[in-house]
UniProtKB/TrEMBL annotation:
Keywords: GTP-binding, Lipoprotein, Nucleotide-binding. It holds the Pfam family Ras. SMART domains: RAB, RAS, RHO. This is Ras-related protein Rab-18. NCBIfam families: small_GTP (TIGR00231). The lineage of its organism: Eukaryota, Metazoa, Spiralia, Lophotrochozoa, Platyhelminthes.
Amino acid sequence: AVNRTPERVFKVVFIGDSGVGKSSVIHRLCQDAFKSTFAATIGIDFQVKAMELEGQVIALQLWDTAGQERFRSITKQYFRKADGIVIVYDVTSAQSYLHLREWLDCIQEGDGDGAVKLLLGNKVDLLAPTKKAATEVAGSARAVEAQAAQRLADECSDSGKAAPALFFEVSAKSGKSVGEAFVKFA
């Protein structure tokens, strides 16, 4: 735990479809734990994560937004002064990946183009080692290839205003790559 007062505070907004694990990623980052059930976020919720990077203490204000369509207009308002936007999808759900373009449009409409972006493919712990195994055991088949997601992350700079998004595949459940992703992001 970091005991010094943060020298900088960064506002980070989490977006993505309902059920992709936004709240779980935040919980893993802040509590280093996993909760198997979360009630769907209504509106917006937030937590703070202090971390030390290169001798400097920073605080990340992690804004957890509702994934349901009816809350999108509320979510857009939070992009305006965001330093970072984390776009989360579920690697076992093609639909959550296909909706990423809509979320990227939301960022533009909400004036969040200047924010640093992090694309997270969550739930890699659910992946079966092979397609054959997915049918034989309780694993899930991969619905989104990492290369396709990396291409989408690279396209985030096409507006000319922004650098490409960072991209990581993570597991909020096991903690795989969550810390690493946020150290790079910060």
